[in-house]
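User: I want to check something. If I give you two sequences, will you return the structure for each one separately, not as a complex?

Assistant: Yes, each is folded on its own. Here is the first sequence with its structure:
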Amino acid sequence: MRSSTTPQRSGLIKEYQASPQRTFQAPNESDEEEDSAVYIDEDDQQYNDNQNYIDEDADGMTDEDAQYDDDEAMDDYQSENPGARTNGQRYDQRSSSDLLLSTPGALRRSREGGIIGLNDSISQSLSRPKASVFGSIAKDLYTRIPPPDVTEADDLVLNTEAIITRLYDQGIGASEDEDTLQEALMTIPGELTNLWEDYDRNTRVYDSEDYTTAIGPGPKATDFQKANYLAGLALQIHHPQWESDSFGRNRAKPLPQVMLEWLDDHHNVFPSYLEEVQHHRPSPSNSRLFWSTLFDSLIRGKIVAVVNLLKGAGWRHARNDSDVPGGQHGDVGFSGVALQNVEEVARAAVEVLGQCPAAHGDWNIRGSDWTLFRLRVSQALENLKSFAEGRNREPPGSNAYGRSSLTGGSGTYSKTAQKAESKVPWHIYQNMVTLYSLAMGDATAIVEVCGDWVEAAAGLLVWWDEGKDDRRLAFSRSRDAYRASSRGSDMEYYLRKLRRSFETATDKTTDFAVNTADELEVSLASLFEGDNEAMVGFLRSWSGPVSSAVAEVASLGGWLPQAEPQSLINMGSLDQEDLDLLGVNSSPPKTDGVKDLTLITYAKSLTHRGHLRKSTPSGPSQASTEGWELAIAILGRLDSTTRSEEIVGNFLQGFPLTSTAVVDKLWRLLNESGMSHHAESVAEVRVFSPCWM
């Protein structure tokens, strides 16, 4: 159980040790690999699976986030927290033939003209973040894991493929309209997330030990559960679901709201604490967990619950952990003037927190309502200090945010004297200061009350007021230049802030660190850093259908790095004599992009899978689809048409054409996938095999 005074720390400060020898080489990182599958040739081992993408702006997360350029009042509040440790259609409506169609014409046009998705500037900023701190560690971890077999149920595999097929049909079909693609990306990722979540929930074997872990689905989680845990969050971050606001308008959920909902569903180690405190007798404030639960609830966005908890705290029976005149340490409850004063400061907190925009469902923390709310909290803090400390408090602007209460020797009076003369019991005063600190967005207080780096990173994303911390830097520049750096889409802003929040939560001055020996923690860190290549790499090592679907959505959405040639020289401008003189190979190594590598890996695994049948609520199963059929359909969606036809050609060389039905099915599939050359070869085989007639 969590302590009533100090939140649990992860304690996961383990050092990662790279293995001297990899037990597995990814398909594109090995020159030699033996594979028992006869369907797909292994000559693609020369392709590299990793490209390092460095943001052209090395300081891509500077001070674009300050919100208080014109508000001098925000200069007055500074953090001094006690004990601070840091500075459409469903699958069952589609035929088996429809399932294997992926609009090959549109695919080819998208390959030739570039991915249709976000505009170029946004796409580049999303797919090429700053270099990842954990990049090399992540790559060494996920490349050591052999490709997984396709062990998921037939329904999961077929339904995932059906949703992705519909993404291509609706998103880049005949219209090639970017708005059409964006509309498809509003709904398709959510369908995938719901599908995988339902499958996880229905197949999970619950174990009490699962709740002892702080990060991830549990120590005994299957590879699919790990993939679902990571992929669900990745899709929600980049393609948040839409909902209606208080005015009936449709809008995408802001990332702070997405992260809070994900925390509640997937990272809630103590889900019953709030209910336990609310029903504690004789009163909630009598519980040892009252304040820690109050802080945790605020960090997790449960504003209404925090307000109600303060309203019904029952201060007359509160635990009295303060040494104030008229009572002894450990006494229970307050009375007289002390009770009146406690109730007064609690009413003030209820009033100001009730004005938080989030209490009305507004999590757009960049909005003016949030700016006004932080100003109100700042004023409420000043009022608290004035009421509690009276004439003996340090003046505003002296960086005295709780300092006289915390450092002892500051000001005219000693700490003991200040405690004695405070109008509010000292521990109530200190905890109220912390509560206001969290609401104002003080990074020190936020990290202090969180239980691990995931919760801290999410808490900072939601509550951290970067504008306050960046004000001095902002005023050292021209105001126009600073405001220009603050512009940008909400998506860009939130992704930058998520990365900065993660870096702050895991800074060396905090108690938190990513366990670099844990694949799931490193994969989550990669996602928070914006290293989507590493994130997909981990998914690729856990689940074929999940990783391929995420790679395709990310590629169309513009947040997955694309393949680039290794050579920096434009070979088209040089003849062979020039190349010989430079000592350059005229055929530079080819590279598979992250998407293509992921799809190739999944397709290989599918060739080992037999028949897949979609179950129905009643009656017999639908007609079966063979694993090799899905494999060819998936290979037909590679970004590189050359690679697609090359691998399918290798597949055909070893494919046993055992019957007319198989030949007809293969011929039709190749034509539908846009590989007419291979379809003609299959047709010739049929013509010269009269025994099948």
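And separately, the second sequence with its own structure:
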Amino acid sequence: MLRSWLAADAGRLVLCGGEPGIGKTRLAQELAGHALARSREVVWGHCVETSGAPAFWPWRQVLRAAGADPDAVLAHDAEVPQDRFRVFDAVATALDRDGLVIVVEDVHWADEASLLVLAHLATRLRNVLIFATFRDPCPAVADLMRSAVRIDLHGLSADEVAELTGPEHAATIADLTGGNPLFVTEIARAVQDGTWRPDQPPRSVRDIVTARLDRLGADARALITTAALIGRDFDVDLAAAASGVPISALDAATTLIDATGHRFAHALTRDAVEASIGTAERRAIHRRIAEAMAGSAHYADVARHWTACGEPEKARDWTIRAAEDAVRRLAYEEGARLYRAAASIEDSCEVQVALGRAAYFAGDLAGCVRAAQRAAELARTPEQVAEAALVLEAAPGAGVNAVATPLCDNALRLAVSPATRARLLAQRSHLAFYRGEQHRLGELSGEALDLARRSGDDRALAEALHARQEACPGPAGRAERLGLAGEMIGLAHRTRSPRGAMWGSLWRIHALIESGELAAAQEELPALRLACERVGGQVPRWHLEVVTACLAQAQGRFAEAREVGRSAYDRMRVIEREPASGAYFALQCGLACHLGPTEDGLALARHFHDPPPRFRLMSKLTRAFLLLRAGFRDEALEWYRRCGPIGEWDLPAFFVVPGLVDAVLVTSGLGLLDDLAEVLPGLETFRGEHAAGNGVAYMGPVSLALGRGHLALGQLDLAVADLSTAVDEASRAGAAAFAAEARWHLASALRATGEDADAVQRAADRAIRALGMTGFTTVDLSSREHEVASLVTEGLTNRQIAQRLVISERTAQNHVQHILTKLGFSTRSQIAAWMSTHPSTPADGPAARTP
């Protein structure tokens, strides 16, 4: 099996499990030997059993062995939780070399951040073999099994035991050890050195090690017991300094340590040595180790030793330093664990604030909420109350906000510095946004921005700019958002913040798309790309890909939009599924305008995640729109009915115009003319604008939807005027597909008024063919074919159609096949989708052409 993995020259994660001493390390060594024989590079990393190792410890060893600088690879600052994926990508990049073999031992002892790296590498490194050992039970293995091969090792047979120990005592030893290779090997040594007594056999490896310790001299014992309290892997110089014994004393303990001279032969060996130390002696040794490590950067290790020798104040100080170091290294789970340990010694507001931030970055929102509440309880000054309130960040869900809002309101009642107050007001504005308190955003964000500007505090200014741009949605706020984008970019340049530059560029591009200036938005993409590359990580790439796909969709580059949009979805859904699904579904709706629904779009429409409360109405409208485009009228109607009375609608601020456009298209397509007449006046107020929300999808000029609505209501003069305007507005915007769509509907409106529409129709048809707008067709159906297509839309089978029209089933089948061939379709559902927006008059009368 080992040889086959190496011969395959392909990457995989292999998880090797079993009890201590079962041979996991031996198998790893065999794998490494075979790999080296094939001239493949092998690097090792060891997780340690003590709680004091620095964050990402096994990967620091692996990176160093691979010739990379761990401090450089793992050195990244974080502003949002997703930034940590930059570290994971950096590790993957440093280790992405064909044929590399990585061995990581004892992952059951790994910190959570190291396990996340392992899971990331398992999916990223296609030509690297990772062999990881673990001791059962290990819950973390279950999460890794989706991308791993698992092997479990078992004990030796009686015959195999006899080969190691000789036949005389083989049966007794096999029964005693259960075939555990380490135990068997240790007993075999005892047999060889004459310490084996059949009448008093050792009951564990511990018994054997204790017997060996008893034969050591005082110096060797002092050195080896000190080493055991340091860990399985120990610093020889530290052990010598803490014990006061020269390193040469280790020569007498060669049966307990491996060939490296600074590692116990097995974790069980170290455990046995530690167990032999009395309580008083143990505390004294821990104190000497802690004192010897006074200048060490292994903060958690020092804290462990001070804890073990009964010095809680020193232990707390070092634990906090260790937590700060873990968070600085982006090992947030380890940082949160250490802050909790510090709080258990002596709690404080500062520790809880730090714990809350670490928990937030680790994705532990419940832990973040608890820490914020506890920090508020422990706060003694107004500034501490404010810091407790700022631990939590506004989120789409209601749970966090329910706690964050009263904390923020309470802090705002107190006298704090201008910069702190600006940050609190910005936080409160975000909370109001997600709580649907749109009427409060202007006041809160405006005061926050004014205070931040006057305070001269860059952090407060950045947070206030975020809050203010969020408070200026839609066409009315576009000019101010463009100004805020410029201010954020200027701040980013002054503070050298790539993330600030990214946000400023995004805001500018969103505003330009919304104003129909697609070419100008396209010109801004290189600046955004540069900022996203400097930030690094998956989330900035997602932002870049989402807006790139939106522009491609708006400008009729459909293949690019599909490819980039799918890449963005795949990149983000493993990090944050809700925004990934929301943005991708919006793009699918935009593409469906001209290509018809895709399998991805229909899958999301029918199995969409439950969106945050603020976006549920928009989710229902977009589902109804896409299902209607697919020809599933009943399902579309059901989702539309779930939207409730139009007068009670409350669309998200940035999606009012797209939401109303969807509503017009759905009500007109379903023939709900009373509802359409109620929706149109609301959309009328946005005449001259373009339907786009936050750069995820573009739905064309508002005049296009108004024209289609008036056409459905039979208001032909209004329809002709609106659709003519839509042709001009879409053309000026560079939205060629929407211009073609507007011409196509304008031709229908002109024909309905009795005017000549041939020239307009020909222009539409040319553009539709040139752009590959497969959701449109320019062929005619006969009266009978139109009748058959209508029955297909009702869901009738060929036999039922034959019975309804009093024709043979074979004739009905031929009609359906002719319709499919004419329209270039392959399924009956495509006919239904085509008919959902098809004019009711067949080609025997005016021309039958439709998307």
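Because they were folded independently, the notes below concern the second chain alone. The longest helix spans residues 577-595. The radius of gyration is 35 Å.
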